[in-house]
Each structure stands twice: as C-alpha cells, then as structure tokens.
Amino acid sequence: MTAPAALAGIEHASAFADRHIGIGTDDEQAMLAAIGVASRAALIEAVVPRSIVRTAPMALPPPVGEAEALAELRGLAQRNRVLRTCIGQGYHDTHTPSVILRNVLENPAWYTAYTPYQAEISQGRLEALVNFQTMVCDLTGMAIAGASMLDEATAAAEAMTLALRVHSASPEGPPRFYVADDVLPQTLDVVRTRARPLGIEVITGPAEAAGAADAYAVLLQYPGVDGPFR
Q1: Sign of the C-alpha dihedral, residues 156, 157, 158, 164?
Q2: Confidence (pTM)
Q3: Could you tell me if 174 and 200 are in contact, meaning their C-beta atoms sit under 8 angstroms apart?
Q4: Is pLDDT of 10 > 80?
Q5: pLDDT over 70 percentage in the chain
Q6: How far is CA 23 from CA 26, 65, 116, 119, 135, in A?
C-alpha cells in the first residue's frame, strides 16, 4: 500500500489568495512549535483516538471536474419523484404570497452585500427577518412577532423559555408549563426535551382547561392536531 500524501501536498493553497486561506507557513510552524509537535499530521495522530483512525485509504472514484460533477448530481436529482404526503400532523403544503417571496426571500439586497462563504451573510437574512417581523406587527397590531425560528416546535420551546424569563412570580415547586393535548406531537417532544434540563414541569390537558391550570404559561395550537378550527 502506498503511503498517503502529505496534507500540504493535497491542499493546493496557491489556488486562492493568501488572505482567504488563513495562516502562512511561518505562522503554522510557530503554532506547532508552541504545541510541541513537528507537523499537522503529527498533531492529528496525537489527538485522534486509535479506535477511529482509518488504516486504509478510502475507495474513492477518480476526481472529476465541476461540470461533470454537476451533471452527475443533476442525473441523481432527476430520479426523485414528487409525491403527495398523507402524513398530516402539521406536514402540509403552504402558500407563500408573491409579495413576500419577491421582496424578502428572493430579494438579492439581503444577501449580495455579504460574502457567501462567511458568516456575515447571516446579517442579510436577519435584516430580512426583522423587516418581515416589523411588517407582521404593523398588520396585526401585536407588540412582538417572531420569524427566525427553524420550525414551529423550536418556536414553541423558545416561547416557553421566554415566558419563564419574564415571569416575575416565584411559586413553590418547579415552574409548570401547560400544553394543550391537541398540540402536534413533534412540538410537544421538543418542548419536553427543552424543559427537562431547565427544571420545567410540562403538563398536558384539554385546551378548555388551560385557564384553570396552575402554570406560568400556556401553549395552544390552532388548528389542533385533529384539524378542526375551534
């Protein structure tokens, strides 16, 4: 078996401007000397557990150019079939109004001002979100609106912790969070997972009984898991 190539030999660092590839050779040697190892390969060998080290090269196909790779990926994607989902439970088609699609999601002003390979592009997304949230507040008359959650389950868990932080009372025992029993099961699972390390007791019951629950906050869903609008 041939010896694996050295890291420096496969990086092709000269293909990019120096300011984009991080430290130079002298800086690297100074850092390695401070750590007390001779090379990056020696550093990796010292810190990676032997039980997970690959002893043989990976069986990879020959490299291809960008055009060939894209053609292969396109061929794989074309094998997908778009089917109708019948799973329910909150998984359903949605409609995005064209004004939102055009001015928020497809507006290049939110992301072209930032380099796409750096974290600062998230600033453009955040700016778009805060404008969308401001518009929702204007339309609904609400004091706050949230639009930056990945999904409704995450939003519910964040709402639970937000309500706890602004709750001024100090009841005896752990704080209690009431969840209506028609909330989507995946939402309830995320709420319970988030509540456990925070010492929040999650209790469930009918939505109609939420007002009488001894809880600092209540989570309701509209429509519920069974579909009807109450």
Answers
A1: positive
A2: 0.53
A3: yes
A4: no
A5: 80
A6: 8, 28, 21, 19, 44
